[in-house]
Amino acid sequence: MRLKEFAKTGRKVSEIGMGTYYDPFWIMTAFAGWRRGGAAKINAINMGLGSGITLVDTAEVYRSEPLVAKAMAGRKRDEIFLATKVWPNHLHRDALVKAFDHSLGRLQTSYIDLYQVHWPNPRVPIRETMAAMEELVGQGKLRHVGVSNFNLRQLQEAQSALPKSELSSVQLDYSLINRSVEREILPYCDREKVALLAYYPLGHGKLPSDHRLEPLSSSRGKTKAQAALQWLAGKPGVFPIPRASTANHVRENAQASDWDLSDQERGQLDLQFP
């Protein structure tokens, strides 16, 4: 698995990560204490970690933090770049600190590498939220600060609200079939050295069966999913985080690393997926 630097952190992480969002029904039943298929999901995360994936993304609302903790058990903590997210109703200072501590407990760790605001909340001043983040950084419990689902203006406001820290990342929907971030946000991230975590990198499961990827995948001996993931992973500062649902899928995703699309192949995909 190829590593690349994550923003300005000085930390190199796997160019392909793992996401642990499953589906709304799974979340609802997990709130009731039933994590259906939990063992298979832990096996999937374990497959990724064993395949060299070091970037793992979760969130308090996903209810998958305990699964991540079980998969990490017995592994070297400093070899895993652990990211989680805080829900928008927990963005006031006291609520955020409490939510963070709860995530620490569920993840069974003493620190989190990346804590992200899951969605913006216009009713909570971003300066209050970012001040709480910097407080956690100062205590050594948090390494880096990120956001998710922010537009360009919100991203700039979050960055300006961190006088002592850097905004390390933004997480957004980005794939060959959803390239809207390329208009404004991706150029901004390139300039500011902000990492972009791409969720739904396989286009909600559509790209693994998209016929437009067949010529490239066949000529390179790769699957369509691997071609779509490498199109993202080969971009500076972009880290696709496909869902860790089954061990076989995670193995396939991990094998999207350690090879490169040529400039000609990238150009062809850009034309096929405008």
SSE arrangement, N to C? EEEHHEHEHEHEHEHEHHEHH
SS elements, strand count:
10
Architecture, according to CATH? Answer: Alpha-Beta Barrel
Instruction: Sum up the overall morphology in one term.
Output: globular
Q: Please, how many domains?
A: 1
Q: Which percent range describes the beta-strand content? A: 15-25%
User: The CATH topology is what?
Assistant: TIM Barrel
Low-confidence stretches: none
> Pairing-aware structural class of the strands and helices?
alpha/beta
Largest sheet: 8 strands, parallel
The CATH homologous superfamily corresponds to NADP-dependent oxidoreductase domain
**CA-based gyration radius:** 18 Å
Order of strands, main sheet, comes to 3-4-5-6-7-8-9-10
| Average of the residue pLDDT scores | 95
How many individual helices?
11
Helix content: 25-40%
CATH class wording: Alpha Beta
N- to C-terminal distance = 29 Å
Description:
With 274 residues, this protein is an alpha/beta fold. The protein has one domain (3-272): TIM Barrel, CATH 3.20.20. It is 40% helix and 16% strand. The protein has helices at residues 24-31, 38-50, 65-72, 93-107, 126-138, 152-160, 185-192, 214-220, 224-233, 247-254, 263-272, and strands at residues 3-5, 12-14, 18-19, 55-57, 81-86, 112-117, 142-148, 167-173, 195-199, 238-240. The strands form two sheets. It has an eight-stranded parallel sheet with strand order 3-4-5-6-7-8-9-10. It has a two-stranded antiparallel ribbon with strand order 1-2. Helix 2 packs across helix 3. The protein starts with a strand and ends with a helix. The model has no long low-confidence stretch (mean pLDDT 95).
